[in-house]
Amino acid sequence: MRNKILFLGLIFSFIYCQNFEEEVILEEQIKENPYLGIWHSVERVIPFGAYLKIDSNYNFTYSGGACVARFFSKGSWTITDDTLFLNSFEPEECYYLSEFGINCRSFDDDYQPTTSIKGCKPSDIKEYVIFNQEKFIIKDSILTHIQKPNNLCPEIKDNFNKESDIRKYLKHIKSIIGEEDKSY
């Protein structure tokens, strides 16, 4: 019985040490490249939410939604100088498509939603979001999207914060609009 307990203790110690080692490696990678990690959407009102995960293998995943809407993307990233560029992979399944950063669309009588495969009928309302040379910089700890000139709603921002606790970001917003922050 004692040997079983020692054996289980060794297994748990090994698993804990291995997880700790992975966390240390991730922290070292983030120090070298501050873009790595999970970024949470900001500047959007509830119920909207999204996250952007940038990994060390030069890939990213983007996922989120609001109410019944769901969206996602997968792609690759590069860095030039201090600018992060994101580009989506081409989806292999049938999805409705939307463009990242184009938050308003104009609909006329002839509007037809774009799909990933011409003529397909998506079985799900989940959208695949296309990142096409989308540029980001880190400004005051915020992953800031550089908007394209054709954005119909420039007041809607697509920025991200590494903190899931939004209070730190609210402090940033207050500094932008000139309010004195007395709550922190």
State the gist of this model.
By secondary structure, this protein is of the alpha+beta class.
Descriptive terms for the model:
184 residues; 2 domains; eight-stranded antiparallel β-barrel; 2 helices
3D architecture notes:
It is a single chain. About 10% of the residues have low confidence. The chain has 2 domains: 32 residues; 143 residues, Lipocalin, CATH 2.40.128. The longest helix has 31 residues. The protein is globular and about 55 Å long. The protein is of the alpha+beta class and 184 residues long. A hairpin with a 4-residue loop joins strand 2 and strand 3. Strands 1-2-3-4-5-8-9-10 form an 8-stranded antiparallel β-barrel. It has 2 helices and 10 strands. 16% of the residues are buried.
Topology:
Layout: H1 2-32, E1 37-42, E2 49-54, E3 59-66, E4 69-80, E5 83-88, E6 96-99, E7 127-130, E8 134-139, E9 142-146, E10 159-161, H2 167-177
Parallel strand pairs: 4-7, 6-7
Antiparallel strand pairs: 1-2, 1-10, 2-3, 3-4, 4-5, 5-8, 8-9, 9-10
| Main sheet properties | 8 strands, antiparallel, barrel
What would CATH call the architecture of the largest domain?
Beta Barrel
Can you list the strand order of the major beta sheet? Answer: 1-2-3-4-5-8-9-10
Number of strands: 10
* Global morphology: globular
